[in-house]
Amino acid sequence: MTYDITPSGNLHVGIIMDGNGRWATQRGHPRLKGHSQGAETVKEIVEAAPNLGITHLTLFAFSTENWKRSEREVSGLMALFRRYITSQAERLITENVRVRFIGGQNHMEPRVLELMGWLEKETRDNGGLNLTVAINYGGRDEVARAVQKIVAKCQTGELSSAAITEKTISNHLDTAELPDPDLLIRTGGEMRLSNFLAWQNVYAELSFDDRLWPDFTRKDLAAALERFRGRDRRFGAVAAE
């Protein structure tokens, strides 16, 4: 028996982009300099992804826990999100990238939400790389919001509690339109998921890279994919002897 490493025919890679602040600190720069440099890495990786066979790329940009950071850093990150969307929109549209944003809308700046909604609309019909950006995102928060939607449907009679399955939950998550990740990469040397795609990553292969995110290149992405393609993914089954 053989096992297709990407049974859906898609290749979905999630990335926890860790290490921007440390990259800046090591060089004597403010932390926001690291985030700015990390945005340059995002451009490179988004450009490289389709040529490496990636059909879906999901990037963890800002977590629900990141609001605990200093007001200056949070404000700087929101400004960076605005600049990234406005400066990269034309290129993303031209390169046929479909952009989605996942995460809660609470606490988010109205202007950032406006730009996110605009870019999603402008790229909705694009058929190239599916780029998903997680902003104000937490895996547990996502599941809680999905449960709230399901409960509301049960209360109106639209859905029976007895009919709730794993698929029901998946269909109410922010990622309902996406396949589950095949490979999760985390840069920065830490070895944890940090509340990223908690439901979806059940069968994702994990790759931890010591490089800080601003130092991560398309060659590093290609190397991670090469290691991934050498793995034996069984999805709970047992290979025939």
Question: What this model shows, in words?
Answer:
It is a single chain. The relative contact order is 0.20. The model has no long low-confidence stretch (mean pLDDT about 95). Strands 3-4-2-1-5-6 form a six-stranded parallel β-sheet, sandwiched between helices. It has about 240 residues and is α/β, with parallel strands linked by helices. The chain has helices at about 20-25, 30-50, 70-95, 110-125, 140-155, 165-170, 220-230, and strands at about 10-15, 55-65, 100, 130-135, 185, 205-210. Helix content is about 40%, strand content about 15%.
How would you summarize the topology of this molecule?
Blueprint: E1 12-16, H1 20-26, H2 31-48, E2 56-63, H3 71-94, E3 98-102, H4 110-123, E4 130-137, H5 139-156, H6 166-171, E5 183-186, E6 205-208, H7 218-229
Parallel strand pairs: 1-2, 1-5, 2-4, 3-4, 5-6
Helix pairs in contact: 1-2, 2-3, 3-4
